[in-house]
Model the fold of this input.
Amino acid sequence: MTKVCVLGLGYIGLPTALFLAKAGNEVIGVDLDVKKVEKLSKGILPFEEPGLPELFEAAKKKIRFTTSPDDADAFIMAVPTPVVGHEPDYSFVETAAKSVAKKVREGNLVILESTVGPGASEKIVLPILNGKKILYAFCSERAIPGNTLNEMVNNVRVIGAPDENSFNSASKLYAGFVKGELLKATVKEAEMAKVIENASRDSQIAFANELARVCEELGLNVWNVIKLANRHPRVNILEPGPGVGGHCIAVDPWYLIEEVKDASFMKAARESNEKMPSFSLALVKKMVCDVSKPTIAVLGLAYKADIDDDRESPSYVFAEECSKAGYNVRLHDPHVKNRKAVSLEEALNGADCACFLVAHEEFKKIDPAKIGELMKNKNVFDAKNFLDATKWRSAGFKLKTIGDGQ
Done:
């Protein structure tokens, strides 16, 4: 049995801690958020994730929660690495590393799971640990909210380590719950691989979003065009949308863009995706151009369907743009807890346009006839092309989709 201290109990840190506890390790879950620690100590989970309650139940006897680290054999740092004004903010990593430095002993294993730019371990973490004779590894997750637990277990993991002993020690720890292959790399290679995985996705989405803007201008339906192009055996174009969110794809490219100034393609992709909330608003403006100070229902605050994670969600940028345009804005999401959000009925009552920005399953079940009774004007903006257009138009709605060319 190994004693493991996991710092950061967010969307990745908490499942990691629970998996390690379920595997039989003695786990200390650490987070600076006192309320979160208190709730976890009472068995209250801080976010939604399929299978998480069951995992918590299976692990709870081997884990305790606190706000400061304790002595351990291994330390895993899974803290946020946000981007502020396109500049990476490593302050949480620095704070975590400093707290680990106070407890770490010779021969202990220290792992950084937080996504960072290539070279961050060498420049930031290791200097804080002050040359102590420890084992070190960088091993970031490859998981997506809504399927996190399955992907943490079954996906391939890249373990970046400076020496064989560090790699073997980290591999042994992760092998307790990871079924996917554990690949060996240098620390800097692993850091770089994680960043470019998400930068690649960002670039692919940017291409789809640019196609939507081009097709809109040409009067073509981008969804039909992409479907046709994807019948080519070596073409797989993704779907466009109102922007890119989440703490990975929308953030990670900046770690590299700011490190290497010649990353012009990745920068262009990131900037292209950041245009989409404004582009979406331009389409909505045409729908409500005859309405004085229209009321807009922003439906969907999560960054993807059927989750409660709203980090970096383009829906908030869209809502802010609507407010700047002088519109009345109401927010709703069946999963996201937001103090400014209201019920679906409140959001739609007297609204001039219902903007569906996220393809939640609950939204697909909405009866257009009932919605029509609530709204002042029957305008619907479907940013993800997931609504049954025939049904909505039959109910008297004017429906617009990104890139439909209409």
Observations:
- The chain has a mean pLDDT of 96.
- The chain has two domains: 3-185, 197-401.
